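Posting for a labmate who doesn't have an account.
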Amino acid sequence: MEIFFILGIPLLLAMVSALISRQKFLGLLNCFGYLVVLFLSAILLRQVVLSGSTISFLGFICLDTLSVFFIFVIAVVVFASALYSVGYIKKDIEKGVISEKKARIYYLLFNLFCCSMFFVPAVNNLGMLWVAIEMTTLISAFLVGFYNKKESVEAAWKYIIICSVGIIFALLGTILFSYAFSVTGLSKSLNWSDIIPVAHILDKNILKIAFIFILVGYGTKAGLAPMHTWLPDAHSQAVAPISALLSGVLLKTAIYAILRFGIIVIKGVGFAYFAHLMILLGVISLILSSGFILVQKDFKRLLAYSSIEHIGIIAIGFGLGTPLACAGALLHVFNHAVTKSFMFFGAGNIVSIYRKHNMHAIRGVIKVLPFTGIMMLVGIFALTGFPPFSVFISEMAIIIAAFAKGEYLIAAVLLVFLAVIFGAFIHHFAKMLFGNLPKGMTRLGEPLSGKLAFLFLGILFCLSGALFVLTKGNWIWVAQKLFLA
């Protein structure tokens, strides 16, 4: 029953946004609504994980452990983004960047975007999954181009065109999966709950070809290199709370889709085929993103390339396939969602004050925005995997799993490029945070809602690693149940 409220509350909030023009009321109502959604998603996660069962409603909604985990991750970031939006949108209105009417449009699109993301892991039908992911693209494109500037409009068009081309490949892959199932004579269902039990009798050659289409199609949306080209532009030009949603959870919905099809391939073809493709794209993403991170000047684009890096790490973790590696990859999905959203909130505050994206032109952030500056400093170490933050725990779980499996080259690649990226982040952000204060800049106050969003996410990425260590057996059990059974 919780899932209907999780899907229904964003729709209800969208309708309210279309009818009411008071920005402050809409912001607070959003916060309350998504706090309820977060609470319900936690209950649903606990219920499904403890019971080990699958919940189904009329065959249309089907929830297993993988589904409810991704729903929970989305709920966490959506609540934080709703909280951050209150102060951010209010400041934009006060500065005359947007009008009250435009703010209402923002909240309408925000809620529709969130609803479409919740819909992705909830649906049973793989065709409807494709529709839901396409809806996330169409709705979020308006939020990428929200400010109607030349750069943001170009980024929105690039986002739509590249992701739409990718989604065509995903559609072809979905059709091939459907064909592989229908030729068995069992049924013509596209429900993953119907396909998985008989995956072992499906035509292996069709499954192999179909999964390549899926990986290219949904890999484009996930930001896996070399299909990532839309991502830096879209993430750097979107409204700051939307940048957090794009990087934190939109990419994860595409990862969910890849895993959902990947489970069928694993059971039908064997794990090796899935593993080789995931590791290949993961390593390419890690290596390519590190090069761009080294030479980057725009710090929102820097964070976007960091997302490509972390998606690569997640892909490598699932590709390694051991219980520890898959558990580490699941934890990394959560860690990256929380930490990257945290960083984009900080980026939003800085851009709002400095009106610049170039790190060379931004100095003395800690003096101008003390709270944001300190949070960004903490976030840099958290995002780059510095102990004891949770990203360190999930990355080390994957690296240890690689060594344990005898994949020494993969482990070495991870260690080398993670060290390079850590050094690059310290180099880029040191002067920006601690440099001399620009002329005319003074210390400014920061909205309470933004501070609460920072603290909420900060507590999560500080504690989730410790919780993983304490409950590692449960995470490994979940990973075994989902991917290795």
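Reply:
Got it, the structure tokens are right above this. The beta strands are 55-57, 61-63.
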